[in-house]
Amino acid sequence: MAKRALITGITGQDGSYLAEWLLKQGYEVHGLVRRINATGGTHIEGLCKDPEIFNRRLFLHFAELREASALRRVLADVGADEIYHLAAQSHVGLSFDMAEITCEITAMTTLRLLSILRDLPVGTRFFHASSSEAFGRPIASPQDETTPFNPVNPYGCAKAYATNMARVYRENYHFHISNGILYNHESPRRGENFVTRKISRAAAAIKLGLAKDLVIGSIDAQRDWGHAEDFTRGMWLALQQSEPGDYIFATGKLHSVRDILEIAFNTLGLKWQDFVTQDEKFMRPPELGQLLGNPAKAHQVLNWHPEWTFERMIEQMVRSDFNTLSAQKR
Q1: What is the mean pLDDT of residues 115-126?
Q2: 170 sits in which H/E element
Q3: Residues near 325 by Cβ (< 8 Å), separated by ≥ 6?
Q4: Residue 306 clears pLDDT 90, i.e. is over it
Q5: What is the pLDDT of residue 85?
Q6: What residue ranges in the chain does DSSP mark as E strands?
Q7: 80, 6 Cβ separation under 8 angstroms
Q8: Alpha-carbon distance 321 to 91, whole Å?
Q9: Is 155 part of the annotated catalytic residue set?
Q10: By C-alpha distance, which of 277, 190, 203, 172 is closest to 229?
Q11: Is residue 205's pLDDT more than 70?
Q12: Exactly one of 20, 28, 82, 133 is catalytic; which is it?
């Protein structure tokens, strides 16, 4: 009998890649979606249009993350062997303007799900997608699973709370709960309000004559950027272990926004210096600590290693945006 998995946030970047991966592994996949979003224009639209998959191996359930009774009903009906909690308000900048809703969705929904887990059959495994933003201004670099949290924005605070609650429920109720502390991860499915997609889309638009320039903030900011496909594979590996645990999913390498610009524009035969300007209104406060992950535990315990290079990832994003915009232009 096929394993059954439930994914919150299935229509997003990570959720869609995870759904595809689990289907390849022979799972029956269930996804939690908001009714107002449906599936049109989302990253699982293709799956939902496939009659061999939709409502045969992929099933969707409508519920609001803030409604505990709806969540409880869906989890009870699905009876999942594995639950992957990926849904969150994950944009750091927006979290300052939407602090309350960020904490409600990102922190309290995790607690709701963990509480419901107590009433589910013994043996249900739970993965919580945490974030490197919980480290904020880290006291050490690179960070590993023992590095204390020190968040500096509402999103990071919400993820720190959710991650610690997952640990509390794991230790007190002996549940199979794993936290994946995810560093920045990108793909052609990344939201357009994130800097990587802003750059890849702008480079494509400029090449096609649909835009003249790109205005961004600091080009010296550095992050540990990986590919979402690699990270979702790590999520699955975490729940295949006999014992639960926390894992850092990162590349262990830093790159700057300048590096993204170089690769993105060069992919299309352009020089970024001819088109890019900086504006102080897009600048974030200076970073006092360096968010750099140490994925040694994931390497050793899960045998997880990133397959995508940074360069190939950015090139893929640019070519995807170029093809999409070209089709729209025609």
Answers
A1: 93
A2: helix 154-173
A3: 201, 204, 205, 208, 210
A4: yes
A5: 98
A6: 4-8, 28-33, 58-62, 82-85, 125-131, 176-182, 185-186, 214-216, 222-223, 226-227, 246-249, 255-256, 276-278
A7: yes
A8: 21
A9: yes
A10: 190
A11: yes
A12: 133
- Annotated active-site residue in 90, 130, 131, 200: 131
- pTM > 0.90: yes
Give the burial class of 1: count Cβ atoms within 10 A of its Cβ; 0-12 exposed, 13-18 middle, 19 or more buried.
exposed
The CB-side HSE value for 200 (13 A sphere, CA atoms) comes to: 26
- Asked whether 29 and 59 are in contact (CB, 8 A), the reply is yes
Is 133 among the residues known to form the active site?
A: yes
166-205 core/surface letters (b: 16 or more CB in 10 A; e: else): beebbeeeebbbbbbbbbbbbbbbbeeebbbbbbbbbbbb
Residues ≥6 apart with Cβ < 8 Å to 328? none
Instruction: At 54, list the tokens.
Output: 């939709």
Q: What is the enclosing helix (H) or strand (E) of 259?
A: helix 257-267
Catalytic residue among 17, 27, 155, 169: 155
- With tokens 């050490």, the residue in question is 140
Q: In a 3-state reduction of DSSP, which class is residue 16?
A: helix
Domains along the chain?
4-186+226-249 (3.40.50.720), 195-222+254-287+309-329 (3.90.25.10)
Q: Which residue has the tokens 């600091």?
A: 218
Structure token digits, residue 85: 């909690």
Q: What percent of the chain has pLDDT over 90?
A: 84
Are 180 and 130 in contact by the 8 Å Cβ rule? The answer is: yes
